[in-house]
Amino acid sequence: MIAYILRRLLYAIPILIGVNVVTFGLFFLVNTPDDMARMQLGVKRVTPEAIAGWKQERGYDKPLLYNDKAAGSARLTDTIFFEKSLRMFVFDFGRADDGRDIAREIRLRMGPSLAVALPSFIVGLLIYITCALAFAFFRASYVDFWGVVACVIAMSVSSMFYIIGGQYLIGKLWHLVPISGYTGGPDAWRFIVLPAAVGVISSFGASTRMYRTFFLEEISKDYVRTARAKGLAESAVLFRHVLKNAMIPILTGVVVAIPFLFIGGLITESFFGIPGLGSYTIDAINSQDFVVVRSMVFIGSLLYIAGLLLTDISYTLVDPRVRLS
What we know:
By secondary structure, this protein is mostly helical. The protein folds into 2 domains: 2-90, no CATH class; 106-318, MetI-like fold (Orthogonal Bundle), CATH 1.10.3720. The protein contains 16 helices and no strands. Helix 1 (2-30) packs antiparallel against helix 16 and helix 13 runs antiparallel to helix 16.
């Protein structure tokens, strides 16, 4: 197990380097440092001197990948790529274009993102699995039929409809909770309930139907027929055997999603005005703040690799036949 984890961690290093190189290349194919300076300075203050000063102040006056004017190792280290990307491997994210420390912003915004994403994730998972088990238990009946119809309808509706509809109905019409904003402390739940509920409802159709497929696939296998032949009740077969064996494909999606709870929801946080990492990323993209964008891409890549590792490890907990060497 330890050797497997070490191998996966070593594999993560070239993957992270590759992700950073691709992100760096794509960003600067679209935007040059001069373009970034013009956007930040504004139309009225754009002069060659102002652009040069902005680039020098933020370290964008250096070559992108190779500095032929430097000597020795400085040809590679005295570049934008080294100073803006490779330092992330020691979690030195630097400062955003507006001067704020990115690491501090991540620490401050991680709490609101988790406060919204974690309840939505846990409650949603319980609802999806429960409904999927109910549909599988009453398969080929009216419960199953109308349940699948409800899932298809829910899948066909955009998440934007749930966001706007929830804000209008719950927030503006009924005045039960605030439409947007966030505050810490005991009153935080008032700002969390609506976006968390929207997150659960918007994912209900796809997740429930997928879990139902997993359960139905297990029900058709030989060991289920053997259990029934031994006289076990259908509920015992479903909960004692089918649920346990269906957890492997469920864990594939669930465990990978756990690390991304720290990132938050891009659309949800933006529409509900939650100062989390999702809205932070959207704001950085709109302002073309490369430093923040590549920091969030790096964190996302790191969390995704961690999620895959957790998925492989969790397999051994639900299926003793799986062994990692």
